[in-house]
Design goal:
This protein is of the alpha+beta class and 406 residues long. The chain has two domains: 248 residues, Antithrombin, Chain I, domain 2; 133 residues, Alpha-1-antitrypsin, domain 1, CATH 2.30.39.10. It is built from ten helices and 15 strands. Strands 2, 6, 7, 8, 9, 10, 13, 14 and 15 form a nine-stranded mixed beta sheet that branches. A six-stranded mixed beta sheet has the order 4-3-5-1-12-11, sandwiched between helices. A hairpin with a 2-residue loop joins strand 6 and strand 7. Helix 1 crosses helix 9 and helix 4 runs parallel beside helix 5.
């Protein structure tokens, strides 16, 4: 039986612009067990995927939330072993499909926040492009549009694959304010492509309290135990979430509105990143994000990095094997057993600096004063970071900085 290919494309952009710390009251969203099932599964998937990607050299950034959302759209059209494998990889095995669909929609709605909130910008967009020779089942179209807001559009993959690729890449660029370019690489779409599922996440926020650019100065950053570079180091003393473990220091920096925060996990040893990565787990992520607010003297580098990933190999090693070969069953998409995944690509970029233009009085109330001997957090060697939602615990972006200048 001739197989047709189904591509998954995922793209992301984040600008992080500056901060201090505060606590938030729990949101009613966390009382939704379906939402929490999807969020917790996504965090477990994040750790599994990081374990497969950490062998790469240099800096790294990706969005586990975005990737899992794109995979969830495909999973909703999978059947049999293919569906079971995908559910296992996403850590939602055994859950009723309806629970997962409702949970995914609720999580997406919770992350977007109220329509009139101005504290941060978080865009979540999903889209399906189908070959003009493929007929998608109305049930699948209705499901993906209701649960993910994913509208379907026909493209002539066979007649003009390059034009189809440009259309998808232009969509990704629009959704990410032009920060993601050429998401789908040349040659990845051909006459056998029947369907492309894409997800884009764009995040822009200001720190709750900014770092002062005048305080940013070049300083040594130890990229390894025996090599260092000069990097622009930001400085600020104030209220941050802070914790210490046996192998790391954790700093939590909230954005305006205190809904989204960045956690920076700094190994105690200059060469300790590899050991820290090996121990990454959902339990540790959860503990790190609960750092308590206190006065901290902070020095950390500005950094900017971009990662372009081909995820097929990693997903296969995680257990999603049949989806990529002749055993694939995505009959829930078009009613036939001929679709399979041919590729899954992901691109992410992150830009972290000191800027922030509105540090309102409400954000300065978290810490009453400076203690005599505050903790010192100096991120002058490789570290982990992740952006997370305070209310649901969902990890939006995850990565590491090995060299701030790279």
């Amino acid at each position: 039986m001739k197989r047709r290919s189904l591509n998954i494309a995922v793209c992301f952009w984040t600008i992080t612009l500056s901060a201090i710390a505060a606590s938030r009251a729990a949101d009613p969203a966390t009382a939704n067990p379906d939402l929490q099932l999807v969020a917790d599964g996504g965090n477990a998937f994040a750790c599994d995927l990081y374990a497969k990607l950490r062998g790469r050299t240099g800096n790294l950034v990706f969005s586990p939330y975005g990737i899992s959302t794109a995979l969830a759209m495909a999973r909703d059209g999978a059947r049999g072993d293919t569906a079971r494998e995908m559910a296992g990889v996403l850590h939602v095995a055994g859950a009723e499909p309806r629970r997962l669909q409702v949970g995914a929609a609720a999580l997406q709605m919770a992350l977007r926040g109220e329509k009139d909130q101005k504290d941060y910008e978080l865009r979540i967009a999903n889209r399906i492009w189908a070959s003009d020779k493929t007929t998608i089942l109305p049930l699948f179209l209705d499901l993906t549009e209701r649960q993910y807001g994913a509208r379907a559009e026909a493209l002539s993959f066979a007649a003009d694959p390059e034009a189809a690729r440009r259309t998808i890449n232009e969509w990704a660029g629009r959704q990410t304010q032009g920060k993601i370019e050429n998401l789908v690489p040349p040659g990845s779409i051909d006459g056998q492509t029947s369907l492309v599922l894409a997800n884009a996440v764009y995040f822009r926020a200001r720190w709750a309290m900014p770092f002062d650019p005048a305080d940013t100065q070049p300083a040594a950053f130890h990229v390894s135990a025996d090599r260092r570079v000069q990097a622009p180091m930001m400085h600020r003393a104030g209220g941050f979430g802070y914790a210490e473990t046996d192998d790391a220091k954790v700093l939590s920096i909230p954005y305006r509105g205190y809904r989204i925060a960045m956690a920076v996990v700094l190994p105690n040893r200059r060469d300790g990143l590899a050991d820290l990565e090996a121990k990454l787990s959902p339990k540790r992520l959860d503990a790190w994000r609960k750092a308590e607010s206190q006065w901290v003297v902070v020095s950390m580098p500005k950094f900017k990095t971009r990662t372009h990933l081909d995820l097929a190999a990693a997903l296969k090693t995680l257990g999603m094997t049949s989806a990529f070969d002749e055993r694939a069953d995505f009959s829930g998409i078009d009613g036939t057993p001929t679709l399979r995944l041919s590729d899954a690509v992901h691109q992410a970029t992150i830009d972290v600096d000191e800027h922030g233009t509105e540090a309102a009085a409400a954000t300065a109330e978290m810490v009453a004063g400076s203690p005599e001997n505050p903790p010192v957090f100096t991120a002058d060697h490789p570290f982990l970071f992740f952006l997370f939602d305070e209310d649901t615990g969902a990890v939006l972006f995850l990565g590491r900085v090995v060299d701030p200048n790279a």
